[in-house]
Amino acid sequence: MPVNxxxxxxxxxLRLFFPLAILSGLACLVLAGxxxxxxxxxxxxxxxxxxxxxxxxxCSLAAAGIDRVRPTRWRTLLVLSAVWLIFLxxxxxxxxxxxxxxxLATHSRFFNATLLSLFAxxxxxxGVVSLYLMHRIVHRxxxxxxxxxxxxxxAALCGVGVYVGRFLRWNSWHVITEPGxxxxxxxxxxxxxxxxxxxxxVTMLFMLLTLGLYAILEVVIRRRQLRLGEETN
Length: 233
Prior knowledge:
By secondary structure, the protein is mainly α. It has ten helices and no strands. α2 runs antiparallel to α6 (109-142) and α7 packs across α10 (197-232). The radius of gyration is 19 Å and the shape is globular.
């Protein structure tokens, strides 16, 4: 096996690419089986939403690679960071697909809940891993305090993005095509939060969900690093 392939494999493994790919493959396999069994493709939106959840992870993966081998390419890193930030809410957004629990092609609530759970877990995993990768880049370049501040800021933006996507029905590309309308929607909720309880509640809920899952991921990674350090000593 060529050395470059080995390095690529190690790079991807350290950034949890293979477990995430297997988890997504499992979700898509179950969805495909459901489509075959029901002779219906009306639930294909789950696959599309999962694809959108992969976009921020792939951007963070590319950013991590460039930060490692081409650290002076600021412009490329900034572009990847911008795309990552725009698409990041698509990852936790998969949790909100439970609103379709009674609308899926099958009539089994248990199966529908299992299917939606698989996709929701995928979205949350892709989101927090990509956030971890970007957090590490900022930590190395700017230090611990800016990196931690960015973490809370991005988590809040995730909450806003989920609300804007699920309830206002804006998509990620609307940030580029119609930024004014999105800004007005968000600014209205911030200016008078008492009249926008749902917006505030959804934003806070997904902000806390993102931060909570991120904290769990950090603990798992640190314990793994400590265990590997003990094994090598």
